[in-house]
Amino acid sequence: MTNLMQQPFSEREIEDSVITWALRSPRRPLAEAAATAGPGPATYLLFFRSDNPLLGPAGLGTSCSYVGAAAAGAQRLGRHVISFREAAGIDVDEVWAATLPCESLGAALFVEWLAIRRLQPVLQALTGLGSARPGSTRQGRPSKFDSVFTRSWVEPPTPLERATAAAELAAILAEPGRLQMLWPPLPE
Predict the structure, then answer these.
(1) Distance (Å, rounded) from C-alpha 52 to C-alpha 94?
(2) Global confidence as pTM
(3) Which of 45, 54, 109, 112 lies in disulfide reach of 64, CB 3.0 to 4.6 Å?
(4) pLDDT averaged over consecutive 10-residue blocks of the chain (188 residues)?
(5) DSSP alpha helices (H): ranges in 51-158?
(6) Cα–Cα distance between 99 and 27 in angstroms, integer?
(7) What are the chain's domains?
(8) DSSP line for 50-76
(9) How high is the pLDDT of residue 151?
């Protein structure tokens, strides 16, 4: 009997397939993506088309800024719409999303992990981009995201927390090769 599984799956090949899939997925304004995403599990990529100087080149929309996964893609994107409406310095109309529907939450989480590993989204490094109010896992001081882009339902950052988080974001953006500008610019 011949062993058909002589060669293991290559994570790199799977990763390449995920990135190709992401590159072919249409990017839509976040509210439109939320309205058109299916109700099932999905991985989603967020992009920013913004003149906000804190986003620097990440505001060109040519690189993925955040990757997430959800059991209910449309619901999660809808919560992000509400969350970004509250974020100072970000206009929800400047946030775009590509949605990658998956058969299960497990598959969505695996695709998310692969995409984060390959794309190194800049806002992934800032904790607390969450789409909901802080719960038990995010109690206490504001997250780094909320220190840079404050939201009304989060405790305001101290000047030191805000400066530290902004400096960390600037350092991330300055890392050579960090921004993988794989997509064409988003329309203005």
Answers:
(1) 10
(2) 0.87
(3) 45
(4) 62 85 91 94 94 88 92 94 89 94 94 90 80 57 84 86 92 84 83
(5) 73-85, 105-119, 144-148
(6) 8
(7) 11-126 (3.40.1440.10)
(8) ---TTTGGGGBSSS--EEEEESSHHHH
(9) 84
